[in-house]
């Protein structure tokens, strides 16, 4: 397994131990919305950079 997969499994185990099984779906949803927001912002930044003309061009 990759390092990222191992890290995610360890985080999941700790979350299960400390927060309990009922709150894991809420935590997963919050994490998913956060990732979605980051991707959206990154796409907007990339789009704005491609629209701007290069100086001296």
Estimated share of beta-strand residues: under 5%
**Overall body shape:** elongated
Annotation, overall tally of beta strands: 0
The tally of domains stands at: 1
Fraction of helical residues: over 70%
Averaging pLDDT over every residue, what do you get? 83
Task: Report the C-alpha radius of gyration, rounded.
Answer: 18 Å
Question: How would a textbook summarize the main sheet?
Answer: none
Structural class: mainly alpha
Number of helices: 2
Detail the poorly predicted runs. Answer: none
Distance between the termini: 47 Å
Order of helices and strands: HH
SSE layout and pairing:
Layout: H1 3-19, H2 24-51
List keywords for this structure.
2 helices; 57 residues; mainly alpha; 0% strand; 79% helix
Could you walk me through the main structural features you see in this protein, from its secondary elements to its overall organization?
There is one protein chain. The chain has 57 residues and is an all-alpha fold. The chain contains 2 helices and no strands. The protein has one domain. The chain is 79% helix and 0% strand. The longest helix has 28 residues, at 24-51. The model has no long low-confidence stretch (mean pLDDT 83).
């Amino acid at each position: 397994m990759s390092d990222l997969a191992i890290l995610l499994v360890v985080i999941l185990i700790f979350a299960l131990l400390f927060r309990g099984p009922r709150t894991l779906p809420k935590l997963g949803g919050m994490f998913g919305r956060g990732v979605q927001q980051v991707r959206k912002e990154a796409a907007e930044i990339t789009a704005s950079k491609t629209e701007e003309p290069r100086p001296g061009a």
